Amino acid sequence: MKVAGATPSAGRAALAGAVLAAVWSAGAAAQPVSPGELEALRARIAEQRARLDAQDRQLLEQRARLAEQERLLQELSARIRSTGAAHAADVGGAPAPGAPAGAGVADTARSRAGSPAATPQPAVAAGPEPLRPRFEGARVTFGGGLRTTVTTTTARMQPDATPFLVLPSLPGVRDGTTKIDARLSSIFVGVEGAQLGEFRLGGTIFAYLFDGNVFSGQYGFYPGFAYVDATSRDWRFAAGLQMDVFSPRIPTMVDRMSAFAGSGNPGNSFKPQLRAERFFARGADRLVVQAALADALPSNIEPPTLRSTENTGVPNVEARVAYASGAPHGDGSWVPWPKWELGLSGATGRFRTFDLANSFSSFETRMSGVALEGGVRLGRQLGLQGELYQGRAMGPYLGAIFQTVGATQRAIGSRGGWGEAAWWWTPTTHSHAGFGIDRADAADLAGSGVSSNRTAFLNLFWDPSPKTTLGVEGTWRRTVYANGLDADGFALMLSSELRF
User: Which of 183, 182, 177 has its CA nearest to residue 151?
Assistant: First the structure.
């Protein structure tokens, strides 16, 4: 549904529908949207907005002319009624036809004045200006996705609905769980505001139904996106809760919440940011340069620990440059990726740690990381993508298997990566297979923590309609702990999603 501050029009309804369909068919569907696809979509929407804004101005001018014509018509009608009443009073001295002899002027006047047709009517004054909505011209689009997953595992995993790690077996405790979950249902609100020069103001709220920490396994309301932005053909400025600029690429998984986090795929966490982006386009090729000042710590993934971390008041610095060639689905391909894409990103910052197990001693840690990403589609049906990263204390960016500092207060170094192969059987049926691994430096762990974590998956998606996706996915995970424990297990996830 859509709520508009100005008079509805077919053009604006089409725009709202296009925005919602594009966002939810690309972003909320099983296939993630690459940064190049997202910027190309923004450029097309900006062009549509410019045309619709011109139509809006024409409609407002027509409304003003119609209002003026209606006011003049009301005044003319009032003058005609007043003139008719005055004329009736002027001829009132002659007896009306059929009046009795001796009927005087007063009687005739009373007779005519009593006739409704001759009764003078007051002039109708022009009414006050109509009330205008507080945010006139703003367009609001509501959407969302109803998503249910059923996950069955052969081992104890953390958390049980969106597993990241495999927990060691316990004597006398039965391994394996089955979880029916709807926390990945989502709600979307998009706002298109005023046009300021070449910039269109807007904003987005996108929330899941978990309580803000996916490790808790509880329901709640957590905004993944909550930001305002100003976008033109060449620039975008944004402030608020957004996904990391650093390492934004993700694999195409049914379990898109875990999405190799802790298994070689850093980034994809949500942080408050001040962001600037510059776009360069030439035909179907596109270069994007991004930079952001971000909060030092994420809030959506907080593994249990005896340490407490906080930011130092200095924001993280993130930067990325990416080049994409070719439009998604170009050359008749079924693969919704650019022909090829290459990106390089980095992040640096620092945070403070309090050790709750050692008289609350505190120390400061510097975080840094770099990631190389890429993707390519080959022919009509095959696509490949992946990423490599290396860094230190990358826990705030879901690297280093969510770890930051070892037992000796050393920043934990880590490296990892992932790869995916995708095959489209038909335009609406596709499979994806991938593998990811994350390794932490043993010397930095000092015998405590997780030394490696890896995940492999194979899935099948069916999109019977643009608003519906059904998926099934098998995964294998193995987690190796620094104290020598080793745990692995399989999981099967079924998913159904209806977007609106």
Answer: 177
* Cβ–Cβ under 8 Å, residues 493 and 151: yes
Residue 117 CA to residue 84 CA, distance in Å, equals: 9
Q: What is the dihedral of CA 237, 240, 244, 245, to 10 degrees?
A: 10
Maximum Cα interatomic distance, the chain, rounded to a whole number of Å = 128
Asked whether residue 55 carries a pLDDT value surpassing 50, the answer given is yes
Coil, strand or helix at 271: strand
- The whole-number pLDDT of residue 41 equals 64
Say if residues 164 and 152 touch (Cβ distance below 8 Å): no
Q: How far is CA 246 from CA 214, 338, 443, 493, in A?
A: 21, 20, 26, 28
CATH number of 139-499, picked from 2.40.160.10, 3.10.150.10, 3.90.1150.210, 3.90.1150.10: 2.40.160.10
Count CB neighbours of 316 within 10 A. 25
Q: CA 285, CA 241: separation in Å to the nearest integer?
A: 29
Helices (H), 372-448: 442-445
Q: Which of 58-72, 327-341, 419-433 has the lowest mean pLDDT?
A: 58-72
Return d(Cα 96, Cα 108) in angstroms, integer: 6
**What was the pLDDT predicted at 297?**
73
Query: In one letter, which amino acid is 179?
Result: K
User: What is the residue whose two structure tokens read 């069916």?
Assistant: 462
Q: How far apart are CA 220 and CA 300, in angstroms?
A: 12
Segments making up each domain of the chain, as ranges: 139-499
Q: What is the pLDDT of residue 474?
A: 96
Higher pLDDT, residue 32 or 311: 311
Q: What's the pLDDT band for 161 if we cut at 50, 70, 90? A: confident
CB 388 within 8 A of CB 370: no
What local confidence, expressed as pLDDT, does residue 216 receive? Answer: 66
Look at residue 455 in the predicted model and tell me its pLDDT. Answer: 96
Residues ≥6 apart with Cβ < 8 Å to 251 = 259, 260, 265, 385, 418, 420, 432, 434, 436, 457
pLDDT in tens, 112-158: 334 333 444 444 445 555 545 555 667 888 899 999 999 999 998 88
Q: Any bridge partners for residue 377, and if so which?
A: 383
Q: Report phi then psi at 471, rounded to 5.
A: -145, 150
Interatomic CA distance for residues 433 and 491, integer angstroms: 15
Rounded to the nearest 5°, which phi and psi values hold at 364?
Answer: -110, 140
Yes or no: say if 234 and 227 are a contact pair by the CB < 8 Å rule: no
